Amino acid sequence: SNRYLRQHVSHTVEQSVEWGYAFDVHCNAFFPLLMILHVLQLFLIKLIAQPWFVSVVIADTLWLIAIGDYIYVTFIGYRSLPFLRRTELFLAPTAALAAAYCVALFFQWNVSLSVFRYYGLPAHES
Questions:
Q1: Would you state the torsion angle of the CA atoms of residues 88, 94, 96, 98, taken in this order, to the nearest 10 degrees?
Q2: Model's pTM, two decimal places?
Q3: Distance separating alpha carbons of residues 97 and 88, to the nearest angstrom
Q4: CA angle 64, 22, 89 (to 5 degrees)
Q5: Average pLDDT, stretch 67-77?
């Protein structure tokens, strides 16, 4: 953000985004993602781990909400800085996210089950 989004104005003090602020924005954006994917999903695991289309929709929607919220909160965090311009670029990944969501639903790919398998967790479809 310092290199590409900072607005250079003459006759003012040079301002930049500090790493501590960037880390704080990340933590604020990551907490809801963590709650959705590690707490809420835990309560829905019996439903998500089924071979039903409804399970795919619920699981993939949780991922869409979690990642979409991360992107949006990050955007809000940087938008509040008056010396940054074009912060709407932080929202650009939402188009790819929406497309990936539609593709995952079309192919009935349960993202949660893929993540469970990747980490070797016993999420059996039964």
A1: -150
A2: 0.84
A3: 16
A4: 55
A5: 95
